[in-house]
Design a protein that fits this description.
Layout (H helix, E strand, L loop, with lengths): L9 E2 L18 H8 L3 E5 L2 E4 L1 H20 L3 E2 L5 E3 H7 L9 E3 L5 E4 L4 H11 L8 E10 L14 E11 L2 H22 L4 E4 L10 E7 L5 E5 L6 E3 L20 E4 L6 H8 L7 E8 L2 E8 L6 H8 L3 E2 L2 H8 L15 E5 L7 E7 L2 E6 L8 E3 L18 E15 L1 H5 L3 E3 L5 E3 L1 E7 L1 H11 L1 E2 L2 E2 L10 E5 L6 H15 L4 E4 L6 H11 L3 E5 L9 E5 L4 E5 L4 H11 L2
Parallel strand pairs: 1-29, 4-8, 16-18, 18-21, 28-29, 28-30
Antiparallel strand pairs: 2-3, 5-7, 6-7, 8-9, 9-25, 10-11, 11-22, 12-13, 12-22, 14-20, 15-16, 15-17, 19-20, 22-25, 23-24, 26-27, 30-31, 31-32
Helix pairs in contact: 1-10, 2-5, 2-10, 11-13
The structure holds one RNA strand.
Length: 573
Amino acid sequence: MPAAPLAGSWRLSGRLWPTLRDAPADAEAISHKLMVRAGMVRQLAAGLYTILPLGMKVIERINRIIREEMDAIGAQELMMPVLHPAEIWEQTGRYPLDEQFRLEDRSGRAMVLAMTHEEIITWHAARELRSYRDLPQSWYQIHTKLRDEPRAKGGLLRVREFQMKDSYSFDRDDAGLDASYQAHTIAYRRIFDRCGVEWHRVESDTGMMGGRGAHEYMAPSPAGEDVIARTADGSYAANVELAVSVAHEPDFGPTPPEPVPFDTPGVGAIDELVSLTGLPAARLSKNLCVVTDDGPVLAIVRGEHQVHEKKLAKIIGPNRAAHPDEIERWFGCPPGSIGPIGVEGVRVIADATIATGHYVTGANREGVHLRGAVLGRDFSAETADIREVLEGETSVVDGQPLVLEKVIEVGNIFKLGTRYSEALGATYLGEDGNERPIIMGSYGIGPARIAAAAIEQSSDDAGIVWPKPLAPFDVHLVLIGAPDTEQAQFADRLFSDLTDLGLDVLYDDRASVKPGEKFVEAELLGCPVRLTMGKRTLPDGPIEAQVRASRRAEEIPVDGAAAAVRELWESLP
RNA sequence: CGGGACGUGGCGCAGCUUGGUAGCGCACCUGCUUUGGGAGCAGGGGGUCGUCAGUUCGAAUCUGACCGUCCCGACCA
């Protein structure tokens, strides 16, 4: 048995801390490799991870920050089951979702595992909240979610079982919801700032939650799965799923009186057309045919743009790319030559940018394109925003240029409205005696994703470089020498002195591990300060301190060592 | 779900093409030496080669199916 913990400090001997020299071959993400190597997590199966004691230290620190800030806005912690009767999910229509784990109990009752907790919290709210006097309320938990993800990936970044801080607000009216939403905005800002990660708050789609307004909290990282568009000062920031921008306007020159055909043998792709015509891609129209249950749809964007599939799907519903033989049937030509002019039986949706200018587009004849096609004159189309914004295009808010950035989603907030309260009968009696649905919001944070994002954002060749607030320990004290030596006695004393000063210390007192190995493992783990106590240190010091981030060596005097270490630690960013 | 790759002691890998005694490094155990940057020497333990079926006198090696894991895409807080 290891020695009992001294506040948040640990003696290392006897503890489970399995580090690895090599990362498992199937780990790809930096955070995944380092978390496994640094003995924080182990994988059980795809998307299922055990968090080891050292990983728990980090998660505990994150959760503590979350609890403090949630409590500070008056949210109340509770805990709901992760095993739910299916009927409740049937009432909101979310029972059949593909991500839902479904099972039966021994009597054959249909059950589900908690994908999220809107249904259950609303079920409780329906029973406990009766009057306008009971509102507003905010309830939260830090608890398990289970999702049958089509593809777990990236280590801890996308998993099938994970802890989430989820909170839910209950208000009388929209103004109340706005206030609860604002309170969460404040709490979230404090949480992510205190965690020491870089983050952006962006406008987001409401996704499977439904509702009417949402933001996501995004930690920039190349390992991220989402992309955001934002201005340098954050005056505009949105997930590209709904980001808008002012497109570059090409010089169109005079508009031809009518479309003019020209030969483009064997040419279909936009870059081939650019070389052939010498025109910028923005003056070509890119025509994409997809198929919905209601038939074919032709989507048109400028040649430099990409159709954003989610934006398109919001307008036309689920769809797939058309097969070449289908295109041949509807347009009478191969995919490279299709265009909007003269087609029948095909719904045409043009991006709003197409409404100005004239374009080179397919003539619906193999090897022929047209110059000078004008929307409204030569063809008709619904216009909508269906393109993905491009880096360098400008903000619709203030004209600043937009940058695109890959990000990890670490939190989100949703204005749910009455979707769940109406479905589950969560109503209250107003002052005027009328029954109304409770107005709800829901708010999520993934603690393990914060940890993973922190590592993605901060590591070097030697290992993790923790932001101070998330480090499993503040100080990593390395003892060189046997337990019965003078330096060991001194290290023991320093260990308890540092702990008394409020620092969490990992005291590497293992007798059987060589100094070099201790140093390497300390850097792999990445606590902000490493102290070395060896024979050399005594009697007069100094004690060597290494600042992990800079790997700079500092000298700590033996007299008043603990206070000096505390001071060094405090001086770090 | 589509495409690709890979499954050999705890981790990293070789062996497979050309079938014939299962190997290397690290880790682990014992002993001695060593103690400020993943120690040295000596000895030792641990593997149904993912599973099943087939071909063969004989399969880690060839064939097939299945399972698992990872990556890209689809999907997704």
